[in-house]
Design a protein that fits this description.
elongated, Serine Threonine Protein Phosphatase 5, Tetratricopeptide repeat, Immunoglobulin-like, 12 helices, 4-stranded antiparallel β-sheet
């Protein structure tokens, strides 16, 4: 059974109720507070405070502050008047209030998970739309730069064509020798005599196409310069690609948490206590190896020697206190020996070390939750036991045995069946 907290104090005004609960050395992360409009529970293993309130309070405005070894809980009253007592004493009423509080807490937890999932989906959708918008803007900017470069190149080409036509029109008149050459070429091409004064357009064409190249070849001292367009200016277009984030399995994996878990396990394996090694210098090398001691404890447990297994795990923990399996296995031995409070302490320590929660330690977390839930149920603290069994089912949802055990615990809480006889 848990130890019931009785040394709490409470004060009230017409609108508020204040509770001051001493935590007996427990830290804030180990304090579990559950509050509804008619029920209050403060749990810090192995201590428990359950308050079935005299009248209804405003759950949404209730607050709790933890510090200096105490928890101060403020509960606003729905009806402003002084209470005769803080808690009710009717057993049947307590049972009904506990059931309603448990049901309300489970529904609130489920609603919170749904709301969190919807919010996460909306954030993903907004991020995807924002990235698509940025990519479209980047594509539009690149297309605009391409269009400007195309228009610039087209304008330069048109200007060059105009300059070529103007240069051909402004050529100086040819001399007689050149005209004779043109006439000879024209006669050779048409097979007839041509008057030098006729067909001026044909002459100009032949002068441009044939004579000018012949003049350049014949006279090496004078080289006609072609009117070519100036080289295009060089430049660099900066192209940036927006990284795409798709909700694939790889990006949703827990690689950082897994690496953190492996790092912690490696550090725990490397950890060595030189002072303890000096203290235990009379032991053999095998007896100073925590892994060897764990295997020894496992063998003792398998043969039913639970106290021997506890002794082996004790020494293994003294040598290395960072391995969660040592505490979880020792908790199993304490369950067999009916050391239930020790089992609670060991499973809680194992769960503290099994962080962050990753796939590699999922089975170990499930076992620790089941063992702690079993210890709670043996102590007849079925509400806490159901929470641990629910946590184990969340890790292993296909386990039919766990589901059956959790169903039986719910029936015990609801009063459908009685608990196990001690």
């Amino acid at each position: 059974m848990p130890l019931i907290v009785k040394d709490y104090t409470w004060t009230q005004t017409e609108s508020m109720v204040y509770l001051r609960v001493p935590l007996k050395g427990a830290t804030a992360e180990h304090v579990d507070i559950l509050s509804t409009d008619e029920y209050l529970k403060v749990h810090f293993p192995p201590f428990l405070l359950e308050a079935f309130l005299f009248e209804a309070v405003d759950e949404a405005k209730s607050t709790a502050k933890i510090g200096n070894g105490v928890a101060v809980i403020s509960l606003p009253k729905k009806i402003h008047r002084l209470w005769d007592h803080l808690v009710l004493n009717d057993k049947q009423t307590k049972k009904e209030i506990r059931e309603r509080a448990l049901q309300a807490h489970m529904e609130k937890t489920a609603d919170g998970r749904k709301e969190k999932a919807v919010k996460k989906q909306q954030e993903k959708k907004y991020a995807l739309e924002t990235m698509m918008k940025l990519e479209q803007e980047e594509r539009d900017l690149i297309q605009k730069m391409k269009d400007e470069e195309r228009e610039k190149a087209t304008a330069e080409l048109e200007g060059w064509k105009k300059r070529q036509i103007q240069t051909a029109v402004e050529k100086p008149p040819i001399n007689l020798t050149n005209r004779d050459k043109v006439q000879t070429l024209h006669q050779a091409s048409h097979g007839c005599s041509v008057n030098p004064g006729e067909h001026i357009s044909v002459h100009l064409f032949l002068i441009k196409i044939v004579l000018h190249p012949m003049k350049r070849l014949a006279s090496g001292s004078r080289k006609e310069q072609l009117d070519l367009p100036a080289p295009r200016s060089s430049g660099t277009i900066q192209i940036k690609f927006t990284p795409r984030v798709f909700p694939t399995a790889l990006r949703e994996s827990r690689v950082p948490e897994e690496e953190e878990w492996l790092r912690k396990q490696a550090e725990a394996r490397r950890a060595g206590n030189t002072e303890l090694a000096a203290e235990l210098k009379d032991l053999s090398d095998e007896e100073r190896n925590p892994d060897w001691l764990k295997d020894k404890g496992d063998k003792y447990f398998a043969t039913g020697n639970y106290q021997g297994a506890v002794n082996a795990y004790n020494l293994a923990i003294r040598l290395n206190s960072k391995i969660p399996a040592f505490y979880s296995n020792r908790a199993a031995c304490h369950l067999k020996l009916r050391n239930l409070h020790k089992a609670l302490d060991d499973t809680s320590k194992a769960l503290d070390l099994l962080t962050p929660p990753v796939a590699d330690n999922a089975s170990a977390r499930a076992r620790a939750h089941v063992r702690r839930g079993t210890a709670f149920c043996e102590l007849e603290v079925y509400t806490e036991g159901l929470q641990d069994y629910s946590a184990a089912i969340k890790i292993d949802p296909q386990n039919k045995v766990l589901q059956a055990d959790a169903h039986r615990i719910r029936q015990i809480i609801q009063g459908c069946i009685t608990g196990p006889e001690n």
